[in-house]
Write a structure and sequence with these properties.
The chain is of the alpha+beta class. The chain is built from 1 helix and 9 strands. The chain has one domain. The strands form 2 sheets. Strands 2, 6, 7, 8 and 9 form a 5-stranded antiparallel β-sheet that branches. The protein is rod-shaped, with a radius of gyration of 29 Å.
Length: 169
């Protein structure tokens, strides 16, 4: 009975080595997974930004084509808002208000998208027709704890609407 003891299981060193290697592999996998999710979030936010801007531009164009008789003031250069006289005699103004692209009656930008700037110009063409150019900038907003904060490294997009009116000034 004087033989050697046989080792059963793993030594402490072997267990620590395997645990350390597993920890390194899991941390690398978690980092890759995290960056993959961040990339998907950025792509989704960029898509939502383009959709929101296109929808706002279409709504503005639709109003100008169907209801706007003429701009109230022309010429105007780089104004932060612009007003139009409607065929019904009402006045509609477009501007960035409270972080939204807005008219008198409605917001044209959804939650999560911030209207940073609106620049409107109106010039009279050589044929005496008013031409209005409206450019607005949207950025992605982050709604945390009911406070609107612009995301660091924010993504911006500029949209433009142009309308040539058919009534001379």
């Amino acid at each position: 009975m004087g033989g050697k003891l046989q080792q059963q299981g793993f030594s402490l060193f072997e267990s620590l080595l395997v645990t350390g290697l597993l920890a390194v592999i899991v941390s690398i996998g978690a980092t890759i997974f995290y960056f993959n999710l961040r990339g998907q979030d950025k792509a989704l936010a960029s898509k939502e930004l383009r959709q929101a801007g296109s929808a706002a531009a279409l709504a503005m164009e639709d109003y100008l084509n169907r209801f706007a008789h003429r701009p109230l003031a022309c010429p105007v250069s780089d104004a932060s808002s612009i007003a139009f006289l409607g065929y019904d005699g009402g006045i509609t103004t477009f501007s960035c208000r409270n972080g939204h692209l807005a008219s008198n009656s409605a917001y044209l930008s959804p939650e999560g998208v911030h209207c940073d700037r609106l620049a409107a110009t109106c010039k009279v063409t050589s044929e005496a027709y008013p031409q209005v150019d409206i450019a607005f900038t949207f950025s992605i907003a982050n709604n945390n704890a009911n406070t609107l904060q612009i995301v660091p490294g924010k993504k911006e997009a500029i949209f433009q609407v142009t309308k040539l009116f058919q009534e001379r000034i």
